[in-house]
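Workshop exercise sheet. Pairs work together: one partner reads the sequence aloud, the other fills in the structure field after running the prediction. Swap roles for the next sheet.
Pair: D.N. / O.F.
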Amino acid sequence: MIQDHTQHLGVLSVSVHIPDAQSLKAKRFVLKSLKDKVRQKYNVSVAELDGQDKWQVSTLGFAMINNDRRRIDSCLQNILSSLESFGGLVVCDHSIEFY
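Structure field:
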């Protein structure tokens, strides 16, 4: 039987601009590299939420579940910092929500 445990879900949504992408293929190359690095380093779920048919813009979602909300917030803030220093894209907007 599953016991009742406190759990938190954190979601980071990030809008990015990829100025050098001149095709969907170029955009996907940048995003795949980014998503693979973030998944490997932070062990979070990653998905492209919007902008799939546009060359230079995208909205990405990063999700993490844990029993410690501060741990989730710290991890999502670190991901945001990593994105801001990732070459090839510019972070335009972001939000962090907890459920």
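Discussion prompt: Strands lie at 8-17, 45-50, 57-66, 90-98. What would you look at next?
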